[in-house]
Amino acid sequence: MELSYILTLLCLPSIFTDPTGCTYNTDTLLYTCNARLWALPLVFSSFTNQPQRLLLKDVDGELPASAPNGPTFIGFSAVDTSLFDTRFPASFHIMCYANTSLIIFKDTFQDLGFIDEVIIQDCNILSLPVQVFSYFGEVNSFIIQGGSINNMVADSFNGLDIKPMPASLTPKGELVLQNTQVISQSFPFGVFYNIYNVTTMVLDNIDITSVTKDTFYANPYLTNLTISNNNLASLPSQLFASSHSLEFLSFWGLPWICTCSDLWIVPYVINNNITLNGDFICSSPVAQSNTKVTSYYAANCLNYDVCQGEAGFVSSDTCIKAVDMVTYILAVPIITLTVISLVCIIQLLLYVKRNEQYIRQMIEVPNIDTREDKFAKALAAKIAKNEETTENRSFSHNWLGAKRKLMIARALSKTITANQINNPLPEDTKQWTNQSNNPLHEDTKQEVYSDNESDLEDYDEDYELQDLSTLRGERLTKALEEKILRDLENIPVVSGIWVAAPRGGKSGLEF
Q1: Which PANTHER family is this protein grouped with (predicted)?
Q2: To 10 degrees, what angle do helices 395-419 and 370-389 make?
Q3: Tens digit of each residue's pLDDT (9 = 90 or more) over 268-286
Q4: What phi and psi values does residue 309 have, to the nearest 5 degrees?
């Protein structure tokens, strides 16, 4: 009985042993696996405790993702995070031996999605392949310290989500590249685009000499940025155009070129209420060497912002805002059109005033003035006289002739009124007056019903209307006679009514 108990105690270490080369610290809950001693792969089922914190020490060479030398990890998807100690974050730490090489692959870290913090220390990383850290998923902190990065591509961090994790003791959301030499001395385009939720970024002593204006374009939640101890003499002016959450900036050990255009960062942090930390010492021009950036800016670049941060143009001490400038530009054509409209209205009013009498006569029915009355009566008297001297003519001849001449008298009176006696002759009137024969006579001959040609000739001679020449001249008389006769059938007798005589009597006009 005692012998079996002793044998059981001796066999316990072999039953509950950890993987070869791995030791466990019960105080810090840290597993340390020495790459010089281990035999890959590291199998989860061989760990006696949950590998909440795992340190790979003295790594030199590759962490394989597949056979023949790997994979490095097997079965870690079975980790039970409910057994983790809440005093410590789930962490994964790679420490290389004396800055030796580290070769990692896209599938090297599969099944390590339970990790919250990643640290790679003192490793000369030959390459960061596409999505090399994607198996980590969401992490609270990602740090590369020491060593170097020989090759980095735009999608190296694709699939990695660095964000403050509320379940962590200290939510960080940080990416730290510190004391690590970036061999290319710059970042590939879009390398930080995939870590959209990062809030803190430290780029300290990584040997970069330039950054492009879109470096932080896809990091809208970035609140704390440190760019220190790099050979950056200036920063592009649009570097923080999309960093609307920025609150803290730290610039230490940068060889600033002190010109007003290069020191845009000074008014930027003031206008955006950003806390700025750093030594800020000018390295050039030589005359300003070792001068504080703030002092140089205050002495050479500080001007009172007349527009107080608003878009506009400064003329002397006056700010013409962009909105006002657009208003002025639009006002010019509006005022011009207004003036033109007023001029046109004034011209129209003057024209109407000049032609007011003419317009009134066109709208209203004109009344026959005294001169027209006299002229009409004179024509009527001629008609009556003609009737008396031509008794041998038929009754119908007298009826038609008298009515015809009275209509001519009335129409001629109206025409004289409409045309105003003192107006010059129109062109068409002049053409009428050039005719050799008086059209009145020919028309009259056609209208009057008579078989006696000599009677018609006497009739025409009797009514040549010579009195008209005393009013406007013979030429106007003939022209008006022709115009009246052309439109005679459409002109009513407005001042008299023809009354037929009873049998055996005379016909005549009543007024």
Answers
A1: PROTEIN TOLL-RELATED (PTHR24365:SF541), TOLL-LIKE RECEPTOR (PTHR24365)
A2: 160
A3: 999 999 999 998 899 988 8
A4: 85, -5
